C-alpha cells in the first residue's frame, strides 16, 4: 500500500548547484532540494562534467528573481 501511495505523492524538486573557487572555476557539483551550506555554491541550470576545473559559463547560472510580496501584487493590478 505504501508503494502505491508513493507513486502519487509529490516528489521534492532537485536543483543543481556548482561549487566555485575564488577564481570562478567549478570544483564540484551537487543536486539537492535546498541550497548547500557554505560559501561558493551557485545554482545552475544543469550539470555538465566538462565544466569541472574550468570557469563556469555565465549562461549556466539560474537567474535569481525575487518573488514579489502578495500585497505588492494586489496593489499593482
List key phrases describing it.
77 residues, single chain, 18% helix
Low-confidence stretches: none
The number of helices is 2
Q: How much of the sequence is in beta strands?
A: 15-25%
Mean pLDDT level: 84
Structural class: alpha+beta
Number of domains: 1
**What would you call the shape?**
extended
Rg: 17 Å
- How many beta-strand runs? 3
Biggest sheet architecture: 3 strands, antiparallel
Order of helices and strands: HEEEH
Our measurement of the CA-to-CA distance between the termini, rounded to an integer number of angstroms, reads 47 Å
- Helix percent band: 10-25%
Strand order of the largest sheet: 2-1-3
Describe how the helices and strands are arranged.
Elements: H1 2-8, E1 15-20, E2 26-32, E3 41-44, H2 70-76
Antiparallel strand pairs: 1-2, 1-3
Amino acid at each position: 500500500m505504501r508503494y502505491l501511495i508513493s507513486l502519487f505523492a509529490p516528489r521534492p524538486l532537485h536543483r543543481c548547484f556548482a561549487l566555485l573557487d575564488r577564481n570562478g572555476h567549478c570544483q564540484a557539483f551537487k543536486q539537492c532540494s535546498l541550497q548547500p551550506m557554505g560559501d561558493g555554491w551557485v545554482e545552475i541550470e544543469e550539470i555538465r562534467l566538462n565544466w569541472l576545473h574550468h570557469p563556469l559559463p555565465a549562461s549556466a547560472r539560474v537567474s535569481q528573481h525575487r518573488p514579489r510580496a502578495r500585497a505588492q501584487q494586489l496593489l499593482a493590478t
